[in-house]
C-alpha cells in the first residue's frame, strides 16, 4: 500500500505528515537467512586488538641510528640509547637492537621507558608478563640488578621486579618477569621502564631486543587479544571475520610499492623473534605478532568463521605482476590455505600448524582473491583466472570471492561470489536499500565486505571533516546504514555476508574515520553504528518473511525474519528520516501472535554520536510493547528498532 501524504500547514511551516503505512507479513519463509550474514572486517591489530602493550617492541622495519627508530622509547637519567643494526642480532628476522649505555659518572637509576600505545593501562587486579632479550656486546665483570616495572609518567612506581644480570652474558638471554601492580593508575599516562643502578653500571653497554609486555588476554591465550576489545567484538554477535585486509593485505605505498612488502602468511607464524613485521598499508609497522595462527585461534575462541584473503599479484601502488610471474604467489596462496585446513600428513604448511599446537584443521569456507581489484581490473582478468583455477582445483570445497565489485563479465571461471564495497552518505544508504533487489538470481552470491556512511556531503565523501566527513558514526549515519541492512536481509538469498568498515580505531592515531569501535589505551567506545550492527546480528532469524515493500528511495525501511526453532519473529524498522513514522503490522496469517513483544530501540538526534568524551550518549533501550496480530508502531526520527514477537 502506498503511504498517503497529507500536507498540513502549521504556523507557516509546511510539514509532511504520513498516515500509518500498513505492512502485511507473510507467515511463509521466502528464503533462509544465512548464518554468516553479519560479521566484521579487519586489517591490523597492533596497539588495539592485539594485547601487546609496548609500541615498537622489537625495532622492526625501522632505520637504525635514527631518532625515528626510537619511536615510543625514552632515556631515563641521561642514558644513551641507539637502535643499532646488531652484528649479532637476536634473530635473522629482527636485525635491530636497542643499545643502552650508562654514562661514566652516572648515579641513581639509569635506563629507558616505553610509552605504550598512547599510554598503558595499569590495573592492580592484573598480572603483567614482561619479557626481553639482552646481551653484553663486550664481556665485562659487571654484576648487578635490572629493575623492570610500570610507573606513572610523573615517576610513581606502580609495579616492579628485579633480575640479576652478569656482564659475562654475551649471548642473547631472555628474561621474563611477572609484574603485579600495588595500585591501579587513575589514567593511562603510564609507562614501562627498565633501569639499572647508574653508579654500579657506569660505563657499561647492554643490547636489548624483542621486548614484550602483556596484560591478561581474552580467554587467557598467550600472545592473545586485549580483553575489552575482544569482548566488544564478540558482544556484536559477528558470524565471520574478514582478514587480513583490506588494503593491509596489499603492499604499502610507503615502502616503494614492491611486491616484497605484501602480507605473507609465513612471516606471521612461529616464534615472535622469527617474525620480521612489515610496514602495513596504513603507514605504521605491523609487528605480525597477531599472525595467521593467532587470528584463527581468536576466531575459534570468539565463535566466528574466517573470510580469508590471499594476495593476488596486485599492489596498491598500481603494480600488477605479469602473468608469467604469478606461479610462486599462487603457490604461497595454496600454502596459506593449507596452513589453515590442510592435512598435516600431506602438506608441509599443515604440518607446521600441527607442530604449533593445532593439528585439527580450522574452519574455512570462503577465500577472497585480492582486495578491491577494480583498481586493476584489466590485470585481474588473468590474475583471477590463474589463481582461481589453481586454487579451486586443490580446494573444491572453498568458495572463492572476486573483488572487482559486482559487474565484471570478463572473469573466468565465472565468480561464485563478489565482494562489494561502498562508502557513501547516509542518504545514499537509505536511497539504495533496494540495491540488490534487481540483481539476477543465478547462483552468484554477494559479500558486502566494506560499507559505511562516512560523510554527509555527497560531492566529497572522501573529504575532510569540514566537507561533512564524520569523525564518529552518528544517529543519522547509523539509521541510514540500518535502512540499507534491511535490504541486505531481504536479499539474503544472494547476499551471504556483510561487514561495516573500518572496525577499530585508536583515538590517538587514526588514519580513517568513522570507525565502528573506537578505543584508547584504557577504554572502548561503541558507536551508534556498532549498536545498529549488534541489533541486526543478534536478532537475525533463519527465515526471511516477505512483507509489504517499503517505498524505494524513502527514509523508512523494514524487514522481517523469524527463528524457525523458537518462533521469535524479528521486525526491524529503520527510520532514517527526520520525523517519526507510524507503521501498522499485520501478522494475521499466523494462528497465534504474542500480545506483548520486546522493543529494542536505538535513537537520538541526527548528529548525536558516542565519543571519547561522551561514550554513552546513544545506547539501545529495551522495553515491552503491545503486539498481536495487528499492531501499530511509531518509529522515532533517526531510529533503529527491533520488535520481537512470538508467532506460530
Ligand atoms: C589521546 O586522545 C585523548 C582524547 O582525544 C586525549 O585526551 C589524550 O591526551 C591523548 N593522549 C595522548 C598520549 O596523546
Ligand atoms: C603470562 O605468564 C604466565 C606464566 O608464565 C602464563 O601462564 C600466561 O599464559 C602468560 N600470559 C600471557 C598473556 O602471555
Ligand atoms: C615466506 O615464503 C616465501 C615463499 O613463498 C619466501 O620467499 C619468504 O622468504 C618467506 N618469508 C619468511 C619470513 O619466511
Ligand atoms: C549472474 O548475473 C550477474 C549479473 O547480474 C553476472 O555478473 C554473473 O556473472 C551471473 N552469474 C552466473 C553464474 O552466470
Detailed description of the structure:
This protein is 15% helix and 33% strand. It has 648 residues and is of the alpha/beta class. The protein has 3 domains: 117 residues, Immunoglobulin-like (Sandwich); 332 residues, TIM Barrel (Alpha-Beta Barrel); 148 residues, Galactose-binding domain-like (Jelly Rolls, Sandwich), CATH 2.60.120.260. The N terminus is likely disordered. The site of one 2-acetamido-2-deoxy-beta-D-glucopyranose (NAG) has 6 residues, from loops.
Descriptive terms for the model:
648 residues; TIM Barrel; Jelly Rolls; nine-stranded mixed beta sheet; 9 helices; binds 2-acetamido-2-deoxy-beta-D-glucopyranose
What would a concise description of this structure say?
This protein has 648 residues and is α/β, with parallel strands linked by helices. It is built from nine helices and 34 strands.
